[in-house]
Amino acid sequence: MKNTFGSALALTIFGESHGRAIGGVLDGMAAGVPVDKEFIAACMDKRRARGDGLSTPRVEADNVQLLSGVVNGHTTGTAIALMIENQNTRSGDYAKTADLLRPGHADYTAYAKYHGFQDARGGGHFSGRITAALVAGGAIVLGALNRAGIDITTHIARCAGISDTPFALDDPAALAAQVETLASKTEGFAVLDAAVEEPMKAAIRAAGAEGDSVGGVLETAILGLPAGIGEPYFDSVESKIAHLAFSIPAVKGIEFGTGFDFAGLRGSEANDAFRMTPEGAVVTASNHNAGINGGIANGMPVVFRTVVKPTPSIYKQQDTVDYLAKKNAELSIQGRHDPCIVPRAAIVQTCSAALAVADLLTARYGEAWMTHPTSFRKEDD
Q1: 3-state helix, strand, coil in the chain (%, to 5)
Q2: What does the pLDDT look like over 182-202, one tens digit per residue?
Q3: Fewer CB within 10 Å: C terminus or N terminus of the chain?
């Protein structure tokens, strides 16, 4: 379906940036799974704009209303409907430029697909605003994954040309410590090296002051994924994660493990040698392949990176066309926009990865990973 991801466990999203509300329907959760509203709120807060020069001045409360599927703090086993009201819209900002195609946006492609019937206000259904529904649904799943011993965390690997400390790809213990460090950060600016935080923020604010924007790279780690998860080819771990990663507006590329640097290696350098631990577990001495072989998890950490392009909504004058008058034109965008979406997109990428992982787990274990989170792995012994 066009607005649905997942088969064994699925999320359908709906809404427009300036409509009454956005939301989703999460189907496939087992009955009796705890739902922590405070955890959901904390995830939503990491995505929420603060009007502080780092994000859009459009500040929304983003309170998630659970309309069905949750009673007394637990799932009922039926579909979970969730809704987030849009309370701070200014559609008039778009009226003067309604016929002008915004470069880098989906204005033209939406018009070509929907023949002018699309809701163009604030980008409509193509707006990054809709990712709030991804976070809300993904947060429910993420909580269940955490109880099953699977941690997913994202940090800002690079922003405005400034790099954070990378995840320790080849050192699972060091990587686990990094994940723990990020888990202790309650605010939405997820970096490992405290020394780069203020320079990154200054660069974002500087771009915004010039009417421009910047992009960056997000790096996500998945710890605790059992070996054997995933399918060859079309439902591989990479395929599922990439599918959802590219559903995040502005994501234009993805790599796993050593990624594009594989091009400069020989096979003798790229292969991850296997070894046996004293406890009898199969591990790899390195992790160039990001815990995935043949599309299937091998039990090592899964690490991937995405590139996020600069926000296309900039205040600098740009060349475009008036698609109704059918002539060239110039555009000065109005409205309220992010000078950089990378910090807010980190939790979106985490929750998107959670949906991909949960769908793969459900395909293999059914509801057992949710109903018996501490013992479902015994099936593999």
Answers
A1: 35, 20, 45
A2: 998 877 799 999 999 999 999
A3: C
